[in-house]
Predict the structure of Diguanylate cyclase.
Amino acid sequence: AKRSGRANYQCYTAALERETEGAFLIEARLRNSLRDGGLQLHYQPVVDVKSGELIGAEALVRMSFPSGTDISPDKFIPIAESSGLIAELGKWVAREACRQHKQWAEQGLDLTIAINVSPLQFRHQNFADTLRDIISDVGVDAERLEIEVTESAIMDNLDEAVAILNRIKSLGMRVALDDFGTGYSSLSSLTHLPIDKLKVDQSFIRSLENDAASRSVTDAIIALGRSLNLEVHGEGIESENALRYLQEHGCDQAQGYWFSRPMPALEFMRWYQQRRQN
Ligand code: C2E
Ligand code: CA
Ligand code: CA
Ligand code: CA
């Protein structure tokens, strides 16, 4: 027993070392990318469920190793948070998304651009001031920008979150609660939140077809949104059936691989033009 305990321990240590090394490499890559312009934003279409029209895009950050291997944001965002790089990364994302919004607007494509904000970044002292400065610097219409913050980030400290959200709203920006349904919102606290939209978590949308509980949760979120006068947005739509379900149940907006994967800006514009011709 002693022996296998020791073997387990060594195995555990080796795994931990590999992981630490991985995190170290990713942090180094992130530092370099921030300095050398090695980050990219991809954009995923957001479609109005009733009209089928393109109305927005979610900006999603991309980073890769020099070898070309992509590093998932699910992996490097937590590392950006623990290494203190998240503020700088968040600023870059916001500025780049604003710049892209402006360029598209000048080309006649006036979309609402959604920007993801990590919990730590959201709680950062002058987050709202930073946004205000970027918006006025780039010169964009704040009403076309949407901040996505997760339900759990907000519920962690509700009073503080409401104060921050109020400041964001006072700039004219929109706010969406991301990954909704997976956190622990109390229904009464939701009525006090200055938000515009609920994004139904992908896990429910993806199992709409074969899981009655997921349908119930989705229906409940749509009803909740309606009664609180919030838009409801389904993400992770991968099939026509899922889209039809949302259509029939009164969901407002949809996003997912069924329409398109996230794309670089140029490809996004081509996708839009092609879609308009058909
Ligand atoms: P999220 O905000 O929930 O973003 C949605 C994720 O689902 C994206 O993954 C998107 O590519 C993926 N997705 C969209 N439609 C489908 C679909 O139909 N099927 C499937 N299987 N997946 C779909 P991605 O880009 O890898 O981002 C993962 C997470 O990383 C995001 O989850 C978000 O939490 C975080 N993230 C991404 N970009 C940023 C950023 O600029 N700032 C911050 N703070 N976080 C970001
Ligand atoms: Ca999001
Ligand atoms: Ca989400
Ligand atoms: Ca997520």
